[in-house]
Design brief:
By secondary structure, this protein is an alpha/beta fold. It contains 10 helices and 13 strands. A 6-stranded mixed β-sheet has the order 5-6-7-3-8-9, sandwiched between helices. It has a 4-stranded antiparallel β-sheet with strand order 11-12-10-13. It has a 3-stranded antiparallel β-sheet with strand order 2-1-4, with helices on one face. A hairpin with a 2-residue loop joins strand 1 and strand 2.
Amino acid sequence: MNSPIISIKDLSKSYEGSEVLKGLNWEIEQGDIVALLGKNGAGKSTLLETIMKLRDADKGSLEIWGNSWETLNQQQKEKIGFVAQDIKGYEWMSVTNFLNYLGGFFPSFDKAYCEQLQSRWGLSAKKRVGDLSGGQSQILHVIQALSIKPELLILDEPVAHLDPSMRRQFLAELIELSCEINSTVVFSSHIVSDLERVASKVALLLDGNIDYYYDLEDLKSSVAHVKLTSNSPISHKDFPPLINWQKRQDGATAKIATPLKESIQSMANKVGAQVETMPMSLEDWYLEVSHAAS
């Protein structure tokens, strides 16, 4: 088994006495495209910026390719791309000058690919960075990050200001990048439908921890709405993995939120209950799990 690209152990971070990350543990493997979900204020940006050493953790350890940020060599750092949620600076530069200037810091910068992305996404080469709209600014920084062909790419809400067509093009580029050089991608987004198109794994940041981290296809094939019917009383104790348990006169309703070690039918058979399941979308799953934790 390969060593994880990112390994986080017991990571904690507080602001003004409020603990945002609470002993968080997480490992990310080579080639994964990981979607990071979480409510506004859950700490997604804090976590991603801590990975990039833009913030210091209060305690815990964080390693990239088996090294702390301080011991990463320059060649390793040059293989990491990052797009923050809000980026300002270089407003006086033209788009082309900005991309070529930053690209010069990365030996892997692919100028031809960069120019292809500019043309494909309709970003004027001569336009000043300071005159770009919010969506154009996001495109600019995404192009910069993709053009260095990073082995590790960290993206914090990279498509929040883009229209559906542009988001689809961006997601297609992520897939191509991952296939071409086996890049590892970690990105946060509140647009759950986009995550389903591209992610191989999904992580959910709740109450300062990654409590849910699953292969996306395994998760999608497992989660469901559940209706349980029984002539005799049943309780949540009979179905411990289920969440959002709602008692009914003839049984209960609940949700399957994680891949089960024991089938729901097997659990129902033990207490003589009948079970009906209905598929659940990833967006519904996210809302159900977030509600259960609130």
